[in-house]
Design goal:
Largest sheet: none
Order of helices and strands: HHHHHHHHHHHHHH
Number of helices: 14
Helix content: 55-70%
Distance between the termini: 19 Å
Radius of gyration: 22 Å
Strand content: under 5%
Structural class: mainly alpha
CATH architecture: Orthogonal Bundle
Number of strands: 0
Shape: globular
CATH topology: P1 Nuclease
Number of domains: 1
CATH class: Mainly Alpha
C-alpha cells in the first residue's frame, strides 16, 4: 500500500462528506471547512509539499467537523470530556481572579484553581445545580485554550515520528511512512475544529445562546441566536468555503515556546467581538450588507490562526532519539525479515 493510494481513498471519503456538509451551509460544517481551507491555502513554504496537496486538503476539511460528530453519540462519558473543549466563557474567569493573560498553563492547574476558589468562597457555587449537570461540565467555563494547546503538541509529536522515519528511511517500511503521514493529517484535522471554534465569538462568552443576566441595552435573548450565527447568517450572505478561500489572508505568528499566550490572545480577540456582534444583531445590520464582512473576517481570522498553529506544531517537532535507537536496533529493512512479506513496525 502506498501513501498516494491511502490518501486517494481518504479523498473519496472526504468528498462524500463534503457533499453532505455543503447542503447545510452551517458554521458547524461548512464554516469549519472554510477555516480549514483558508489555512491550508496559506501554509508556509517551509512545510512539506505533500501536506499541501488537494487530497490532503480534502481530508483535513472532512476531519474539521469530526469533534462535533462525537456529540451525536449523546454519551455522558464522551460529553464530559468533549463539550467543554469547544468553548471558553471569558467573563467567568474574573470571578476566580484570572484573566486571559494569567491563565495557568495546564488544564489540570486551571481546574485546580477553580476548585480551590470554590472551596474558599461558596458563593461561587450559588447557581450550581447538580441535577442539571448530567455530564458534570458546568463547574468549568470551558477548556478551549487547553484543547488547542494540547492538540498542537499532538500534531508536533506526529511530525516528530514522521521526521524521524524520513531521516532513517532505510530502517522503516513504506507502510510506516504512510501511517505516520496519516497520523499527522488526522491530528491536524481535529485541531482545525477547535481553532475554528475559537474564531466564533459565541464560543468565547456565557452569552452564547442569547444574552443572559442584566440586559440594559436590550440585546437579543433568542436561544437560537447561536445556531443562526453558525449557519443561517452564512446562508443569508451566501458565504461558503468556496467564496472565502480567495480572501486575503496570511498565517498568524504562533511560536513553539509562546504558543499558549498566543492561543489565549486569539481567544481574547475573538471575545472582543461579542458586543459588536450583539450590537449588529440589535440594529439589524447583521442581516444586511455589514454582516457579510463580519462573518468573513471571523473565518479568515480562524484560518490565519490555524495556519499559524499548524506551522508552530511543525516547527516544534524534532528527531525522536528513543525511536532512533529502536530503529537502529532492528536494523535496515533490506537486512531483516527477507521474504516474509509485510514488515512489522519496530514499536
Amino acid at each position: 500500500m502506498t501513501c498516494n493510494r491511502f490518501f486517494t481513498r481518504a479523498a473519496i471519503v472526504a468528498t462524500a462528506g463534503l457533499v453532505l456538509c455543503s447542503t447545510a451551509q452551517a458554521w458547524d460544517e461548512d464554516g469549519h471547512i472554510a477555516v480549514t481551507r483558508i489555512a491550508h491555502r496559506i501554509l508556509p513554504e517551509r512545510m512539506p509539499a505533500w501536506v499541501k496537496s488537494p487530497e490532503i486538503r480534502m481530508r483535513l476539511e472532512y476531519l474539521s467537523a469530526e469533534p462535533d460528530r462525537w456529540r451525536g453519540q449523546n454519551a455522558p462519558d464522551l460529553e464530559h470530556t468533549n463539550n467543554p473543549d469547544h468553548y471558553f466563557d471569558v467573563e467567568q474567569i474574573a470571578d476566580y481572579g484570572l484573566t486571559m493573560k494569567t491563565l495557568p498553563a495546564f488544564r489540570r492547574q486551571f481546574t485546580d484553581v477553580l476548585a480551590a476558589a470554590r472551596a474558599k468562597d461558596s458563593a461561587l457555587l450559588k447557581d450550581y445545580d447538580p441535577a442539571k449537570d448530567r455530564d458534570y461540565v458546568r463547574l468549568v467555563p470551558g477548556l478551549l485554550p487547553y484543547q488547542i494547546a494540547e492538540l498542537q503538541w499532538k500534531v508536533a509529536s506526529s511530525w516528530t515520528t514522521l521526521k524521524t522515519y524520513e531521516q532513517y528511511r532505510e530502517y522503516v517500511t513504506d507502510d510506516m511512512i504512510e501511517y505516520a503521514r496519516a497520523n499527522v493529517v488526522f491530528h491536524m484535522g481535529i485541531l482545525s475544529h477547535y481553532v475554528g471554534d475559537a474564531s466564533q465569538p459565541l464560543h468565547t462568552t456565557h452569552h452564547h445562546n442569547g444574552w443572559v443576566g442584566e440586559n440594559p441595552k436590550g440585546y437579543t435573548t433568542d436561544k437560537k441566536f447561536h445556531s443562526f450565527l453558525d449557519g443561517g447568517l452564512m446562508d443569508i450572505h451566501h458565504v461558503t468555503s468556496d467564496t472565502v478561500v480567495s480572501l486575503k489572508a496570511s498565517p498568524r505568528t504562533v511560536t513553539p515556546k509562546g504558543y499558549f499566550g498566543d492561543i489565549c490572545a486569539f481567544i481574547d480577540e475573538t471575545h472582543q467581538q461579542v458586543i459588536p456582534l450583539y450590537e449588529m444583531e440589535k440594529s439589524g445590520e447583521l442581516r444586511k450588507a455589514p454582516g457579510k464582512p463580519f462573518v468573513e473576517a471571523r473565518l479568515v481570522a480562524g484560518g490565519e490562526m490555524l495556519a499559524g498553529v499548524w506551522a508552530a506544531a511543525y516547527d516544534g517537532s524534532k528527531i525522536d532519539d528513543f525511536r532512533v535507537k529502536r530503529l537502529l536496533a532492528k536494523g535496515k529493512v533490506k537486512d531483516r525479515n527477507k521474504g516474509t512479506g509485510t514488515l512489522r513496525s519496530p514499536d
